[in-house]
Amino acid sequence: MTSVKQDEAMVNAFDPGRLAECDAETRGMIERRMRLLGPAYRLFYENPLRIERGSGTFLYDQNGEEYLDAYNNVAGVGHAHPRVAEAIAAQAARLCTHTRYVQEPILRYAERILPSFGGTLADDGHIMFTCTGSEANDLALRIAQHHTGRNGIIITSEAYHGNSSLTAGLSPSLGRRAPLGQWVRQVPTPDSYRLPRDTMVSWFLDHVARQIDDLERHGNGLAAFICDSIFSSDGIYDDPVDLLAPVAELVRSRGGVFIADEVQAGFGRTGHGFWGYRRHGVDPDMVTMGKPMGNGFPIAALAVRSDIVAGFGRDMRYFNTFGGNSVAIAAAQATLDILRDDALPEHADRVGDYIRAGFARLQKRFPVIGDIRGAGLYVGVEMVKDPESKAPDGVLAARIVNGLRNRHVLISATGCHANTLKIRPPLVFTTGDADRLLHHAEALLEELAE
Fold first, then answer.
1. What's the number of CA atoms in the CB half-sphere (13 Å) around residue 193?
2. Closest by alpha carbon to 105, among 299, 286, 273?
3. Among 12, 174, 186, 355, whose Cα sits 20 to 30 Å from the Cα of 250?
């Protein structure tokens, strides 16, 4: 592979220092954006995209140029799905109000979604609505801390759980300068590519137990262990699937609750189980969800065991002006119906396997593809400097992400070293779309190998 300076940007973001390289129109828009929106916002890609519409698995720029979207999981049933758009428009024309009035649609949705969780939550759970996954996680942690009387929270080393004050404090993937909360403890990523499979469960349990001990030693103790079952920000690790059930047992034995953050892995993204944690055989105490729940319309939620939320509900009220509003519920119901009617979780299994098999074929030609992971339509392709050392190559991953963008295929990168290609397209992604992705990935790897 062509050598690249190691100080190049290792993540999928536009460098404002390269603004002069953009065409005049794009440069003008970015300058306006920086002036109006401020410095905290980021743009994707070395050469930013101006997107004006979407349809199914495609996005279109201002010139009508088509881009295959293999990244945006928010539009789970496809960009601008007509059934979702029609449901939103019809409800907005009728009523949009909060949850303090009795309304049939929110009850109907709750009756539909609660059985999907299985286990205790299906039998004796409640669902509470928010606008975003950050809010859902924030609420879950507040309830956990109230229920246990403790503050301690355990996360994985590169977790992302949101951007509220509380959840940003347990999202180390936001960057090295983003401070973690006082009562937050980290455990290492369960790296199935580098760690021995036969000892990984005991290794992970040992790390969780040590952090519980540390929280207790410092006078407070454990409120919750929270994780994303596909470990998306850690690098996308789908296996082993016997990892989390023992953790849940340990956490409960030490007085804490187990929270499954399904914002990334849920709603069929990781296949036919519908929820990522079900692959692990876990019966969680709480489940948080968001992103694809309304196919782009802001809606998220928390499912929680009745005994855990009982005290919280007794001691304080919960109200969210926009959480679970009439239009949001209409979007969520249409999305849920499409997932069922079109069997999209099962479709995700088939097409995801097809993509992983395609990258496995490429791996035989390009040993810089170190590992291929994932479940359903959440695919991770880890790039390394060589297969013997397994040294991460974030520079190469960034070149692939940007190279594919220039070929009108959109993906991103993730993990501690930003060296794992993150492929998570809308669930309506077809094998034809996959062939297009694989064709351009192969051509780009050939080009970079010259």
1. 24
2. 299
3. 174
Strands of 183-323, DSSP E: 184-187, 222-227, 257-261, 286-289, 300-305
- State the alpha helices, DSSP H only, in 277-343: 306-315, 326-341
Peptide bond into 240 cis (omega under 30): yes
**List of long-range contacts for 337-340, beta carbons under 8 Å, 24+ apart:** 337/83, 338/77, 338/81, 338/83, 338/84, 338/295, 339/76, 339/77, 339/267, 339/268, 339/427
Domains of the chain in sequence order: 48-80 (no CATH), 87-341 (3.40.640.10)
Distance CA 415, CA 73 (A): 17
Which structure tokens are listed for 403? 């190279």
Residue 201: phi and psi, rounded to 5, are -65, -50
Average pLDDT in the 104-128 region?
97
User: How many of the other CB atoms lie within 10 Å of CB of 244?
Assistant: 25
Q: Where are the alpha helices (DSSP H) in 7-150?
A: 24-37, 82-94, 104-113, 119-124, 133-148
**Residue 358 corresponds to which tokens in the numbers above?**
């395609």
- Rounded Cα distance, 240 and 318, in Å: 37
Q: Provide the 3-class DSSP secondary structure of residue 384.
A: strand
Q: Exposed (0-12), middle (13-18) or buried (19+): which is 2, by Cβ within 10 Å? A: exposed
Which of 411, 364, 354 minimizes the C-alpha distance to 387?
364
Averaged pLDDT for residues 23-50: 90
Confidence (pLDDT) at 11: 58
Query: What pLDDT, on a 0 to 100 scale, did the predictor assign at position 2?
Result: 37
Examine the pLDDT at 8 and tell me if it is beyond 50: no
Question: Is the predicted pLDDT of residue 171 greater than 80, yes or no?
Answer: yes
- Among candidate residues 220, 145, 157, 152, the one with its CA nearest the CA of residue 188: 157
- Whether the pLDDT of residue 175 is over 80: the answer is yes
Q: For residues 71 and 73, give the distance between their C-alpha atoms in angstroms, rounded to a whole number.
A: 6
| Average pLDDT over every residue of 269-294 | 96
Q: Any idea which residue has 């050939």 for tokens? A: 446
Interacting residues of 432 by C-beta distance below 8 A, sequence separation 6+: none
C-alpha 413/C-alpha 93 separation (Å) is: 40
User: 7 pLDDT exceeds 50?
Assistant: no
pTM: 0.94
Q: Which residue do the tokens 């999202």 mark?
A: 171
